[in-house]
Amino acid sequence: MTTRAGFVALIGEPNAGKSTLLNRMVGAKVSIVTHKVQTTRARIRGVAMEGESQIVFVDTPGLFQPRRRLDRAMVAAAWSGAADADVVVLLVEAHRGVSEGVERILEGLVNIGKGRKVALAINKIDRVEAPVLLGLTKALNERFDFFETFMISAERGHGVDALRQWLATEVPEGPWLYPEDQIADLPMRMIAAEMTREKLTLRLHQELPYQLTVETENWEERDDGSARIDQLIYVVRDGHKGIVLGNKGETIKGVSKAAREELEEFLGRKVHLFLQVKVRPNWLEESERYSEMGLDFKDGNT
């Protein structure tokens, strides 16, 4: 049998369902999934096997109108991920249709799409009636010459198998890029930090998810098979530290417990997780923080 392997970039607006689709395709949780917009900062690669094909997914940050350095670095990372991929899949939310953001992405695809296959995946199809779906499909294909169109629900799994099977035939022939049992090429330290950041984002709602970051400072393998993980949560103001800690430390305890349980499930062993909150007023302007997130600091320049 001929083996195939290639990179597939998932692009779309924030909250279009890219991370949910990635996790569904890979069959494990490798990308942060919340109801918050712009939660995926780094291009997370998840690896899916389909027959003799290895599909390496690049889950890009959502494409949106950037306002500050971190925004610009995220958008640059998204377009870079698309430009480096063998196949690009544009996710559009069925109920939102052709929004201003989708219009901007379609304009960007004119350049990125040259010489590579671009597929359209209309997501969250359970939210609209069939005539609306048909109208949206027609409108989008009139704006860009998509190679294929798929109707999916990433959350429920509808249509995802058909999309994965198509991708398996479209990635180039060649040897596999990763061991068969590997599901992500992010370092575990970064995956662990992402899991904690997700729990903080969910717990803090609208308060400050965009102004904090999490880094895994230390990872110690213990003789009993467990792991000790020390993480730092950086915030920009003293007031934010209080919010993260919560009344009598309740918020940070809840976050730590939820993150630890998910890490234990992911790793299949005992985890000792220690979180510390530090005020770092200028972390959004520090190149090291961007490196930790897998972003290029220079991409944030105006």
What does this protein structure show overall?
The protein has nine helices and nine strands. The strands form two sheets. The protein has a six-stranded mixed beta sheet, with helices on both faces. A hairpin with a 5-residue loop joins β7 and β8. The model has no long low-confidence stretch (mean pLDDT about 85). The chain has two domains: about 170 residues, P-loop containing nucleotide triphosphate hydrolases (Rossmann fold, 3-Layer(aba) Sandwich); about 110 residues, 2-Layer Sandwich (GMP Synthetase, Chain A, domain 3). The protein is an alpha/beta fold.
Question: In the CATH scheme, what's the topology name of the largest domain?
Answer: Rossmann fold
Q: What is the percent of helical residues? A: 25-40%
Number of domains: 2
Q: Which regions have little confidence, pLDDT < 50, spanning 5+ residues? A: none
Helix and strand string, N-terminal first?
Answer: EHEEHEHEHEHHEEHHEH
Largest beta-sheet characterization: 6 strands, mixed
Please tell me the CATH architecture of the largest domain by its name: 3-Layer(aba) Sandwich
Strand runs, count? 9
Structural class by secondary-structure content: alpha/beta
Q: Give the CA-CA distance, first to last residue.
A: 49 Å
Shape: globular
What is the mean pLDDT? Answer: 84
Query: Radius of gyration, Cα only, in angstroms?
Result: 20 Å
Q: Count the DSSP helices.
A: 9
Going across the major beta sheet, what is the strand order?
A: 2-3-1-4-5-6
CATH class of the largest domain reads Alpha Beta
Query: What amount of the residues lies in strands?
Result: 15-25%
Q: Looking at this structure, what is the CATH superfamily of the largest domain? A: P-loop containing nucleotide triphosphate hydrolases
